[in-house]
């Protein structure tokens, strides 16, 4: 089964095509720059921890 990639709602603010995309499957999170095909894979708990840290930093 191929990954279903979603674009960040915060991407492409400058209109230059720069996008961050993510594909989640419950076990891993795959992250890529939409201009390239290479992606990084992290365990779902690490991705959740990263998001919690970012959200906490935004609230500060």
CA-CA gap between termini: 40 Å
Low-pLDDT runs of 5+ residues are: none
Spatial sequence of strands, sheet with the most strands: 1-2-3-4
Major sheet attributes: 4 strands, antiparallel
| Total strands | 4
Order of helices and strands: EEEEH
Strand content: 25-35%
Question: What overall geometry do the principal axes of the alpha carbons give?
Answer: flat
* Class from helix and strand fractions: alpha+beta
The whole-number mean of residue pLDDT values reads 82
What count of helical segments does DSSP give?
A: 1
The helicity comes to: 25-40%
Q: Measured on Cα atoms, how large is the radius of gyration?
A: 13 Å
Topology:
Elements: E1 6-7, E2 20-24, E3 28-33, E4 39-43, H1 44-59
Antiparallel strand pairs: 1-2, 2-3, 3-4
Short description:
The protein has 60 residues and is α+β, with helices and mostly antiparallel strands.
Structure in words:
- This protein has a four-stranded antiparallel sheet.
- The protein has 60 residues and is α+β, with helices and mostly antiparallel strands.
- The chain has one helix at 44-59; strands spanning 6-7, 20-24, 28-33, 39-43.
- The chain is flat, with a radius of gyration of 13 Å.
- 2% of the residues are buried.
- 27% of the residues lie in helices and 30% in strands.
């Amino acid at each position: 089964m191929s990954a279903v990639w979603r674009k960040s709602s915060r991407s492409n603010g400058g209109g230059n095509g720069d996008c961050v995309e993510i594909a989640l499957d419950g076990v891993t999170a795959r992250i890529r720059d939409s201009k390239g095909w290479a992606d990084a894979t992290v365990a779902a708990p690490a991705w959740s921890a990263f998001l919690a840290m970012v959200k906490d930093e935004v609230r500060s």
